[in-house]
Amino acid sequence: MSTPRxxxxxxxxxxxxxxxxxxxxxxxxxxxxxxxxxPPRILFLSSNRSIDASILSSARLGDASVRxxxxxxxPFVVSPxxxxxxxxxxxxxxxxxxxxxxxxxxxxxxxxxxxxxxxGFVAAPVVQxxxxxxxxxxxxxxxxxxxLANRWISRRVGTVFTSAEVRDPIANGWTRVPPIxxxxxxxxxxxxxxxxxAGCRREMGLDPSLRTLLVTGASQGARSINRLMEAFIERERxxxxxxxxxxxxxxxxxxxxxxxxxxxxxxxxxxxxxxSMGLAWGGADVAVSRAGAGSVxxxxxxxxxxxxxxxxxxxxxHQRANAExxxxxxxxxVVEDLIEAGPNMGVAGARLAELLTDGAKRDAMRQGxxxxxxxxxxxxxxxxLVEG
Length: 388
Known about the structure:
seven-stranded parallel beta sheet, 45% helix
């Protein structure tokens, strides 16, 4: 009999941490079934933010036993309130994670528990718990500029995978893998093929015959991108003739955005959050998006010519670095998010108008994305966790 295994994933706070974990968990379920004929137990320790509950409560990994527990973990913020929250959440989260590892092992400690740290403020106390409980840890780095938590974790674990190019001595010995993209975020069929485009649009309730612009600020939306689209429709309405829009707005923006498209007479589907991102990307001819690791990986995997607007408030500008491989390949145009709609129209709006009207440019960008190869990082990391 093969030794039973359980997998504990530590991470959360944004979809950018959770979706890669789900992608790896999907592959682990398949690999474990092949190894021992049964699915493993899988537990996610997440933040207590609503986005985590929204993503994980709807996650399905076949018939595997999957559950998630929120923690009190908080980000490290240098302010009196921030430090109080951080230290107030650290101890309880470490204790919760230690208890979770012990419970997964069982009373006779017969279950082999393996821990995957997904980065961010939840992962650090989970790793501390795993060290105390002597459970093996694999860290996943998703950003080109590792954050404080990943820097701390990487010095305390033996195996680190990174799906981003990291130009920092700290990454010596890290294993580079392609983007980690969940199956639900990859379109069925050949990316960019006419049948794929039409089929995905139909599944999303869109007109299968219309070219489609995908607008997304990632799982939490992006107000500056929403405002850019308002200004774009006001000034460049003609370039959207013959197009429809699929727009993920984030909370509190959906009704305003729906009304905007309706008044302009532009066919559009507007949602706070899109669960079936594979269909969304698969039906898109062009995308306007943030440049988080998840969004970059999904644009890569689905070969969608994209205008990437990195989050402007990160001091380290790691989203800009995330997007560089796509930009070098000619598959994406990276522009600074200038926050206000007027300045953004001068750069991002101009490039969007160009893409909407230049089919040859779109074709060349898809070819550039094809040259990057498959986004199969989830398979590689899952195999290392299962076989290591």
